[in-house]
Structures are given as structure tokens and as C-alpha cells.
Amino acid sequence: MLSSLREFESELRGSGVRSISRCTNLNLAGGSLTLAVLRMHGDLIGGLATPDFWVLSRRDQCDLRKPSQECCNSGTKKTFPSDILQSFTFTVHSSDLPLLQVKMATHLAALCPGKGQPFQIQPRSTPKPGPDELLIAVKSVALNPADIIMRDQGLFITEYPTVLGFDMSGLVLDLGENVPVGDDGFQPGTRVAAYSASAWKGCAPDYGPFQERCLVPWQHAVRLPGQNMSWNHAATLPVSVQVPLSAWDMMGIPRMDDKASSDDSQDDDRVEKKEALLIWGASSSIGTMGVQTARLMCQDPKSPFAAVYATSGPTNHEYIRSLGADRAFNYKDPKAVESIVSAAKEDGLVIRHCFLATGQLSLCQAVLKEFVDLSPAEGKTTAKIGSAPWIPADAQDVDGVEVIFVMPSTVEEERLEQFKYWIGTYLRKHLSNGSIRPSPEPTVVGNGLDFINSALEKMSQGVSCTKLVVEVGE
């Protein structure tokens, strides 16, 4: 199967075509064979619509508008994926040489026309993946608070109209150069979840997931294990996993996979487990994955963490315990800070690392302050908070407690390596062995890009312990 327009052009040239103008008109005149390429019926193969194309000689006299005629069977059958060519027409010039007019494929997108404006559903040209890129047929998208900020405030957007979004799941349609292939890589038809690179591309519209086709760096994508995970569940994964993993990195917590492997029975390999890891806002999407990834750290004999403490509303306590929280606290309780500190002392633990998924920074600072052990050099940091929300300009400094805003590197090479680990290595490993599951459960707002506007409005009204999803493709 020819999998790219480049290969298609190469095939035509190899058959005697003298000149090809990309994306416009192809003058098919060459030697003893004049080519006509006809689209036949499409078959669904592996989730990809694959139309059949035929190569005919000039001597074939069949009606070109009816390619199913018997006389067409004298041609040579060729197959091209549907994302290469969308439509074409055949005409005959006075020289009796055919002209093939080719249009590149288009797809529907929820375009953001301007700051603060609702999305509009419009067609746009389907791009070809560049080096290290995947073209994905988007099946589901999950929504994040940052989507509202970008739509309303124009954050990161350099030019309108554009396409927004972060979380997606779908099928790989095409690969650019240098993309790894095979069992450990990607190929057309691979099921993936992916994190958009839009924010690092000036919000160029080809990279936003709120459309039927989207470009993604392969480092931002993970192969889904098996066929059982739904598109909706898969779409909830990328941001939910990336943010807490980024927090652990930025707080200087060693990655489990980076530690030297050795016999766990040796005492030298073990460390004293004396810390509880605090997740504030644990029922948010990134908070639930914070609990799951923290639980895995607690299970590592080389990690200093012994327990996961988490805050949420009381109605979600049972759920976050099912994800791995050892203790759950009501963040609405006026004595929440006191309760957390008392529990840690009762357990013989200290709390010096906190992931703030959502909520009040000052409450996290108040908890960690109780466990700060200042050195003679006054103010030395001994506790850290990784904050997913923006750090307020009026946030108070607390001696011994460092607050770090969680975000990937702004250096392209570093960011790609980070995502390659967070999404391609860590997430793939723990999805495959079942130690991480999609969380929280998705709520489907609707099927079709036109539901993204209403989904964002629903999110702005507030949701708890769920992730809003819009189904894009079947």
C-alpha cells in the first residue's frame, strides 16, 4: 500500500508522468501509457477507510464516471489510503490526453475564531506529518481547565483562527520521517492516546485536538495496550499523567525507573520510609493520577514514602482510597490542616512533599510548615510543593517551604525527552501491567465537535471527580 502523497507521486513518475504539481493539477502524459486514477468504493480496514484506485491505459474506453464497469478490469489495481486524496475529476483535452485534478483531503475542525469567541465547525486541509510526527484520526477528546483559559484569554495563541485542546485518543493514519515503527513504535492503525503539542507550536491549528485530524510528536503519544480500552477512557490519560509526573520531577523526587536495579532483599538497597506524600485536590483529574503515581512510589522499597495522604470532598473519599490513598481528608473542614498534621504524627511520618492539583496553596503551606526542620542557615528549604495552578502573585512565602509551578521544559529537546518518558515509557509500562488505570471516570457530553462549546460551559460551572469528554470520530 502506498502510504503517502510522496509515494503516490513517485508511482506516477515511475509510470511515465512527466510533471506533477503538488496539490493542484497532475498532467498525466507519458510515453505509450496515459494514466487515469479512479476512486473506487472504500472498505473499512483496521478502522481506516481505504479507497481503491485503478491505473488505466488510453485504450480503455469505459465511462470514467462509472469505474465499476467491466472494461476497467483491464487496468492495474492500486490501493491508496483515504487521507492521501479526497477527490478528483477526469477530463479529456483536445490532445486526447487526460488531466487529473487532485484535491488534498480535508476534515472538520472546531475553529477558535478569536479571543473569547465560541468555536465554529469548519473544514480545513488535512496536514501531512513532518519529521518525528504522527497524523492522528481523533476519536475522543477530553477537556481541561486550560482549554477555557486559552479560549477566553488567548493564552499561548499567536494567530487566529486556530484549533485548541490537549487530550486526545485516536488512530495513527500516517507517519513522518524518523518515527519509530514496529512492535515498540507506531504504524498506520496503531491505537494511541496523545498530549497535544499545540502550546509549544504557537497554537498552530494543525496541532490542536479539537478536530478530526491532528499532528502530534511521536514522543507525546502512547500505544494503547490491546483493544479493550475505550477511546473515551484513553482520552482522559495524557494530561492527568503528565502533570503529577512533572511535579515529582520538579520537586527532585528520583524516578523509579532511573534507580539501579538490584536485589530488594539487600538492606543497602532500602531507605527508611518516613514520609507521607500529600495530594491536595485528589478528586480532580490530575489529582486522581497523583494518587495513583504516589501509591506506586510508596511500593518502591528505595523510596522514602510510606503513605499517600489525599484531600477531597467527603463524597469522593471512597474513590480516592480505591486509587491508593491511605488517608483521606475533607478539604472543606476548617480543621483540615490540623487533622492532616495529627494523622502524620500518629503514623510516625513527616510531610515534606505535596502535589497541589487544585485548591488553596496556603493550606498546603500550613501543613508542610509543621514539618520544616530549618538548618542554622535560616530559611533553607526542606519541603516542596509542586503546584499545578498558577502561583498567585500575592502568595505568601513560608520559610523552609518552596513552591514550584509545574510545567514541562520550554526547551524543545528537553520537553520531547520528558514526554517520551512520561507518556511513552512510564504510562505505557503501567497501563500494560495494570498498575495504573484511567481516572477519573469520563462523562461524555456528546458526539460531534459541536459539543465542545457546551462541554467547556459545563466545565466552567464546575465538575468533581470526572473528566468531560467529547466523542469526535466513530
UniProtKB/TrEMBL annotation:
The keyword Iron-sulfur does not apply. Residues 116-470 form the Enoyl reductase (ER) domain. It comes from the Eukaryota. CDD domains: enoyl_reductase_like. One of its GO terms (molecular function) is oxidoreductase activity, acting on NAD(P)H. Keywords: Oxidoreductase. Belongs to the zinc-containing alcohol dehydrogenase family. This is Chaperonin 10-like protein. It comes from Fusarium redolens.
